[in-house]
Amino acid sequence: MDDKTTRILVCDDEQDVREMLQEYLGKRGFAVTTAGDAQELRSLLTRDGIDLIILDINMPGEDGLAALRSLRVDSQIPVIMLTAAGEVVDRIIGLEMGADDYLGKPVDLRELEARIKAVLRRRGQGSVKQESPAKIDTAQFGDYLLDIEAAKMTAGDGSELPLTAMEFNLLKAFARNKGRVLNRDQILEQAHDRSWDPFDRSIDIRISRLRRKIEKNPEKPTIIRTVRGLGYVYDPEHS
């Protein structure tokens, strides 16, 4: 990833939607340009370097699907489609035509921001540098030792603590980021599993289940701690 500001083009025929997205994403460090229709979209693409497009499906004249079709002839710029609730067929067609993601209206702004970051991360773009996790073989989680090479966790008496693949990936991510606060996006990136949904509370639920296995008091965790408003941290020295 590089340090340049990510440039986003929002194409939607509704002015209030364009202004809302421009204001919200602008406050979060993105440079946002807007277009009211597909023709204006293409005009802006010829003049400005754009990193990602947010494209509404339902626009008068040339709709979003037609605009996406013409765009994909000679461009692979990431595209997130906006669709009205229940338009499952349009969403499937959009993905098959090369859209990177879709989001239903009314738009949840925090979810949109998360999806933008996820798409840019998959495409190897973005405005935030990620530190490389440390390479380690073992890590102590309370009374348990995680053996990363063997993919298992054992207690002091040698007995093995059963772990799901997701729990092991979580522990490995925390072990390699000891003392570093990880937000949900970072956890998802480093402990990724296709069945996870980064936009619900699945990560929190899985960490809660993991705590019940490794913490002496899961209600007051000391091994994997919550940092309010930021994420989670594995800090064995603190515990």
UniProtKB/TrEMBL annotation:
A GO cellular component entry from the record: cytosol
Location in the cell: Cytoplasm
Alphabetic keyword roster: Cytoplasm, DNA-binding, Phosphoprotein, Transcription, Transcription regulation, Two-component regulatory system
Residue span(s) of domain OmpR/PhoB-type: 136-236
Gene3D superfamilies found in the cross-reference section: 3.40.50.2300, 6.10.250.690, Winged helix-like DNA-binding domain superfamily/Winged helix DNA-binding domain (1.10.10.10)
Keyword Membrane: no
GO MF entries: phosphorelay response regulator activity; transcription cis-regulatory region binding
Pfam hit, one: Response_reg
DNA-binding residues: 136-236
Coiled-coil blocks: none
GO BP annotation list: regulation of DNA-templated transcription
Listed name of the protein: Regulatory protein VirG
SUPFAM superfamilies cross-referenced by the UniProt entry: C-terminal effector domain of the bipartite response regulators, CheY-like
InterPro entries hit by this protein: CheY-like_superfamily, OmpR/PhoB-type_DNA-bd, Sig_transdc_resp-reg_C-effctor, Sig_transdc_resp-reg_receiver, WalR-like, WH-like_DNA-bd_sf
Entry-annotated residues carrying 4-aspartylphosphate: D56
Domain Response regulatory: 7-120
